[in-house]
Amino acid sequence: MYLPFQGFISSFRLLDILDILLVAFVLYKLFILIRNTRAVALIKGLLVLGVVTVVSKVLDLHVINWMLQQGMTVILVALPVVFQPELRRALEQIGRGRLFRSGQVISMEELERLIDEIVAISESLSKTHTGALIVFEREVGLNDYIDTGVAIEGLVSQELLGNIFIPNTPLHDGAVIIRENRIMAAGCLLPLTADRSLSTELGTRHRAAIGISELTDAVIIVVSEETGSISYTYGGHIYRHLDGNALRNVLKTFLTRTPQGLANIFKWRP
Asked: Which one of 29, 93, 157, 175 has the lowest number of neighbouring Cβ atoms within 10 Å?
């Protein structure tokens, strides 16, 4: 007996497998790019509208189907405007060769030096109760927030960070954003979280740190000006009262990346 898919299997080539794997790889990278951004919610909304459009057509709901089709046309035209930050970020990462790049960007020696500098300056600022907000970019690009600050693009060091966070200076109240081992900008503006369940002890710095962690996969270090306590935020959560060793472990966990092969390409990363 002839089965419909027998002809498909007989015409299937090794190049078709490669084609499917490449498409899957690109889709995975795009998923990593938009994960934890507003694009995810927008895509879900489009999927819901698509399902409703199909259902209305099956049920012969002509008026609703016509309205949805017209609306989908308008939405597709507006998508480049709605997704402008995400599209720009994708093009920037392609231009920097980061969209298809995996594994550790900087050497382990340089990463160790970076962590040593951050731990040292955090402990120093904690002792003097000097407020600080340090953001580490991971997979999700932070160029939109970098553009709100003063460009620096300098190598991370205790001395540079100490000067940036000197009280009553122009850059003191903003955030420092670090990409790989370089300070990209200081005095950056971050969105505040809308979570009303947070403790009243948390000030603007902590709320900004939580806010940016809700929208991106960045990890953020906060030094409290009032108590000197060191905290970090990730995924919309804040973890407080860290010592030097705990901070070092946090940075190693979030900043150390392992190469990804085809075997674990679809593995969810924290």
From this structure: 157
